[in-house]
Amino acid sequence: MDEVKVVVAHSERATLRVGDVFLKVDADQARIDVEVEAMALAPVPTPEVLWRKPPVLAIAALPGTTLGRLGGPSTGSPTAWAAAGAAIRKLHDAPLPLRPGRAGRSIIALAAELDDECELLVTNGVLPADLVTRNRQVAEAALRPWTPAFTHGDLQIAHVFVDGDGVTGIIDWSEAGQGDALYDLATFTLGHEEHLDDVIAGYGTDIDLDVIHAWWSLRSLLAVRWLIEHGFDPFSPGCEVDVLRSRM
């Protein structure tokens, strides 16, 4: 019998692996709806949906390995990172899905959420005030008008699989929808700034680096408390708090 491996688990959802099958358990069926719909529309390789019986979605494992993870070393070559950039560009150029995604929150709503979170981080003593203030200043550059694109919405490097120098698939589409393309690029390179040039080379167009830096700060500020509350450690080397410190 294949071993059951817990890939990730917290109060909102869990993902288990049994052999070559991933079982995603999510109490919010709307997230699963978004994921299935996005995988069907995305013009990049995605996992095969094997079956669905709420609250469980079963998908096939992808060939290859991930490019790495936040807080860990990258296992991919510069060519592989560039190939990922080209795949992301293909996604962003695709016809828009109907739904707004996580990367598509309004500027006003996002600014209000960010200000509230910054206040809580300081008031609760989670992060020093100067660190929060500086990164809130950096994050301001992300709060600008943008042209909607087909975005993944949670494009961590652990969600992109490669085999050699080619992309074999992208997983975890529950936050997909219309959004800011630079949010995806920033999420993908978060904590791996050394590969940003490779990704941009593959993406194939000029990128406003100030906005990428802004999204690194903004995403990290919004993530720290959630990660702590759900059993993760944003203070681990190379993770969100180190990303915030790098902007000082």
TrEMBL record:
Entries under InterPro entries matching the protein: AGP_Transferase, Aminoglycoside_PTrfase, Kinase-like_dom_sf
Record's keyword annotation contains Cytoplasm: no
SUPFAM superfamilies in the cross-refs: Protein kinase-like (PK-like)
UniProtKB keywords: Transferase
Gene3D superfamilies: 3.90.1200.10
Any one GO molecular-function label of the UniProt entry: transferase activity
Positions of transmembrane segments: none
Top EC class, one word: transferase
PANTHER family cross-referenced by the UniProt entry: AMINOGLYCOSIDE PHOSPHOTRANSFERASE DOMAIN-CONTAINING PROTEIN-RELATED, AMINOGLYCOSIDE PHOSPHOTRANSFERASE-RELATED-RELATED
Protein name: Aminoglycoside phosphotransferase family protein
